[in-house]
Amino acid sequence: MKALLLENIHPAAVEILEGRGYQVDLRAGSLSEDELIEALDSVSLVGIRSNTNVTERVLESAAGLEAIGCFCIGTNQVDLAAAAARGVPVFNAPYSNTRSVVELVIAEIIALARRLPEKTQRMHDGVWDKSAKGSHEVRGRTLGIVGYGNIGTQLSTVAEALGMDVVFYDTADRPAHGTARRLRTLKELLTTSDVVSLHVDGRPGNAGFFGAEEFGAMKSRSMFINASRGMVVDYDSLRDHLLSGHIAGAAIDVFPAEPKAQGDPFESALRGLDNVILTPHIGGSTQEAQEEIGWFVAEKLARFALEGSTALSVNVPAVLPQPLTPGHRLGLLHHNVPGVLAELNAAFAAAGDNVIDQHLSTKDQLGYVVADTSDPLSAAAVEQLRGAEYCIWARTW
Ligand SMILES: NC(=O)c1ccc[n+]([C@@H]2O[C@H](COP(=O)([O-])OP(=O)(O)OC[C@H]3O[C@@H](n4cnc5c(N)ncnc54)[C@H](O)[C@@H]3O)[C@@H](O)[C@H]2O)c1
Ligand SMILES: O=C(O)[C@H](O)COP(=O)(O)O
């Protein structure tokens, strides 16, 4: 049983997987498509972060791959549909680094409002420039949050505690937290906010979502923050608005193309601007978040591989079975067609197996059933189900 963990995943994950009998290959950087195909040979579990793309071609060639762990929030780097079609569940850590992102953004709001990037640069250049010009308190200023999900809502609460007025815009219905106000249009948010912070997800439809029109609509001398995904924003347009002085400052953590390994060169239209904070995608990179993510996702991978649990999977039906009695459990991932459960129960009945616990969950075109029997599973029943047209895989534990 081999597991491959890329992108500096926390050792907590290694401890969990090794403790469950896996031989773990832990690597620092991410891999290209071809490198990943080669590295996945005879690997059953793979762990990645935001910088490794698991494409349909990778999945096609990784015959032994059982599950994928995204040791982060975003799962846009994985072809989720292609993985689901091959019966490969994908897991992530939806909440573990939320707080870390919020704290970074709060720090950036204050740093930009006090012009810290320019001030510290001047001091390092040997220039004493004591002045209040262009520096503001954040108390009483309006923060506009675009994308009011797990991160957006927590940012809302913390910013409110600092005395900021919070407005938000989300394409989904999201209740307001505290005294935050929901705005009906993005335009309204842009024309109202002193700081605009993006927290949308990385769905393909969000590519290029924020560009010249949106920057143009922002208030004069407002500030812009993006810690969501790089492809969401047109950074050439942001540069134009920073150079014209229309946007007073920006903090950017994510980029359309990010270097694959430590020390690789970094290129961006925003380099060299002293009113811009640039960080290397570290929103979720705190010891606390990484350790939590390490055990959380490793646990999900192990519980799937060793017990059949798909709880919290983002692409296959979620089933959380009862504790395992070895030799008594069947897991059947199948195309979602009528009659599967009836056939499964008939096969067990014909073999004289009594089903004592059974869970079925469906999601789009897929169904997943986990059945526990009172006696050890009958091989005949399992083989019959394995041979059925609707079967994607049938595993026993
Ligand atoms: N910089 C980092 O290190 C870092 C760390 C964690 C997460 N992230 C990114 O932040 C994103 C958000 O995280 P989350 O946990 O809050 O996700 P989430 O899914 O809880 O929230 C995303 C919200 O954005 C909304 N949304 C999507 N597209 C939108 C659009 N075009 N306009 C308005 N609203 C839109 C959704 O309806 C949802 O409410 C993640 O998907 C990930 O890409 C980055
Ligand atoms: O999706 C996420 O959680 C963030 O983008 C962090 O990604 P990372 O683990 O690659 O830093």
What is the compact description of this entry?
This protein has helices at residues 11-19, 33-39, 56-61, 80-85, 98-113, 116-124, 150-161, 186-192, 212-217, 235-243, 287-307, 340-351, 379-386, and strands spanning 2-5, 23-26, 45-48, 67-70, 90-91, 142-146, 165-169, 181-182, 195-198, 222-226, 247-252, 276-278, 329-335, 355-363, 366-373, 391-396. By secondary structure, the protein is of the alpha/beta class.
**CATH topology description of the largest domain:** Rossmann fold
How many runs of DSSP E, i.e. beta strands? 16
Largest sheet geometry? 7 strands, parallel
User: What is the helix fraction of residues, given as a range?
Assistant: 25-40%
Please indicate the percent range of residues in DSSP E strands (runs of 2 or more).
15-25%
Question: What is the name of the CATH architecture of the largest domain?
Answer: 3-Layer(aba) Sandwich
> What is the alpha-carbon Rg in Å?
25 Å
**Mean model confidence by pLDDT:** 97
CATH class of the largest domain: Alpha Beta
* Separation of the first and last Cα atoms: 15 Å
Count of all domains: 3
Ligand species? nicotinamide-adenine-dinucleotide, 3-phosphoglyceric acid
CATH level-four homologous superfamily name of the largest domain? NAD(P)-binding Rossmann-like Domain
| Poorly predicted ranges | none
> In which order are the strands of the major sheet placed?
8-7-6-9-10-11-12
- How does the helix and strand content classify structurally? alpha/beta
In DSSP terms (H or I, runs of 4 or more residues), the helix count works out at 13
Order of helices and strands: EHEHEHEHEHHEHEEHEHEHEEHEHEEHE
